[in-house]
Amino acid sequence: MRVVVADDSMLLREGLQLLLAEAGHEVVASVGDGPSFVEAMAEHRPGIGIVDVRMPPSNTDEGLRAAVAVRRSWPEARLMVLSQYVEVSYADDLLATGDGGVGYLLKDRVSDLDDFLGALAAVAAGGTVLDPLVVRQLMGRNRDPLADLTPREHEVLSLMAEGRSNAAIADALSVSIAGVEKHTQRIFAKLGLRPDDDAAHRRVAAVLQFLYRS
After folding, report:
1. Which residue in 124, 125, 210, 130 sits closest to 163, CA to CA?
2. Tens-place pLDDT, residues 72-85
C-alpha cells in the first residue's frame, strides 16, 4: 500500500516510515504541515494518508482541516487522523465527506502495532475506525463546551474576560506568554471557534461564552 505521512515531528514521521516499511508498505511522501499534506495527497493519490491534527502553520487543528480539504477535492481518499488530543471542530465535516475510508485515533491509545496496522487496512478498504473517546466527544457536543476546559484553561479564560492581555495573564499565572498563547488556542478549539476566524473575534466570542454560562 502506498502511504502519505504528515506530522510536524520529524522523529514521528521517521518512525512511521520505518514501521510501515517493515509491514510492506511504501511511504511515497513525508511532510510536516497541512498545505503540504494536501499537495502530496493530490500528487501521489496514495492508498491512504496519515495525518496529525496539530501542525503548522496554525498548530491547532491544521491537519484535520487539511484532511477535510483532501476529502472535498477527492471524496474517495482514505485518511487516518492521529492526534494527541480530541479535536472535534472539523471532525463532523470530515466524517460527512465521502463514503467511509476514515479513521481517527489517539496516539497514546495506539498501543498495539498489529491493531494499528489492522486499523489502517480497514480504513484503506473503505471502513471507518474511530477511537471510543472521539465517539464520546462527538456524541456529547450538546454539552456545555466550558466543561471540557482544564482548570488552567478556565483560569486563562477568566482572566481574558477581565480584559487582560496575554502578557498580563502570563504575569498573573507565572507562565510564559507562549504558554498562554497555547492555552488560548486550545480554548478556542474546544469552544468551536475556528482558526480561520479573526483572532480578535475569537477572543471576544470566547469571553461571551464564558460570561453567558458563568
Report:
1. 210
2. 899 999 999 998 87
